[in-house]
Amino acid sequence: MTRSIAIAAIGLLLAGAVAYADSGDEDAAVAGSAVTTVVSATDESPASRSVSGFQQGRGGASRRDPALLAEFTNADNAFPLPKGRADVGQKHAVICCEFWIFEAWVELFDDVDRDGHYTYFRVGFDVDTALTEADVYTRLFLRGANGVWNLIYESEVFPIFGSSGSDDYEVETELVAGYPTGDYDVLIEVYDAYYDELVVEYGPAEASALSYVPLEDVARDGLTAPPVSISSGGGGGAVSLEMLGLMLAAAAIQVRRRRRTG
To answer: Which superfamily is assigned to 45-220 in CATH?
Structure first.
């Protein structure tokens, strides 16, 4: 029974190949273009999930609970892009001099296909102030090959204390969709929560750790599916997809030869 099903399936595939070849090269080219358009990644909307908090709040764990990750949506461009960063490589002089970032770093996680590009990353930074204490919030941006800064997260308001080294802040982000495989720049903006003003801008121009970060979304980080075969259930008789492909190609060649000699 299984062998009969396999033979019937092969027959249908061969018939499809013959019909496809008879339709002509021009129609095949058009069909191929249509498929390419449908699966094009350029139509994807960027989507990510993030969680943030003080480094000490992580309690020594390598990562925060994934259940805490929440989707961030930059609907209708409600948040402005980084001021002074519209052009690639342009450096912006931030408000001086009550706030600054002492250092920043990036940690990478999750590379299922082992291509060197990661889907989950942490951005950590130490915001200092000349004040005894201040309330701030941060915005995080990514810039890919298209040169456009994309806002991926805005934090809640959190306190910082002078130049303390115990108030390091972190943002962990998982890229869900819309982020092609490539190298990305990271930009951190810090705002004074009381005046709602940008006070620190820190990115690739300030720290090499925030440039050329190898990333991709989870949709591009899957394992390759194992080969599939149709088995008769007895000894031998299995037909692999590779063999089916060869049979289909041979059938198409025979049809084309008949069309040329007919």
So the answer is: Immunoglobulins (2.60.40.10)
The alpha carbon dihedral of 101, 72, 114, 144 has a sign of negative
Q: Where are the domains of the chain?
A: 45-220
202-213: pLDDT as tens digits: 999 999 999 999
Across the range 18-32, mean pLDDT stands at 40
DSSP string, the chain: -HHHHHHHHHHHHHHHHHHHHHT-HHHHHHHHHHHHHHH-GGGPPPEEEEEEEEGGGGTT-SS--GGG-EEE--GGG-SPPPTT-SSTT-----S-SSEEEEEEEEEEE--TT-SS-BSEEEEEEEEEESSS-EEEEEEEEEE-TT--EEEEEEPPPEEE-TT-SS--EEEEEEEEES--SEEEEEEEEEEETTTTEEEEEESTTT-GGGSSEEE--GGG-PPPPPP-EE--SSSS--EEHHHHHHHHHHHHHHHHHHHHH-
Residue in the structure block whose two tokens are 């720290």: 207
In whole angstroms, give the CA distance from residue 53 to residue 242. 51
Model pLDDT, residue 164: 83
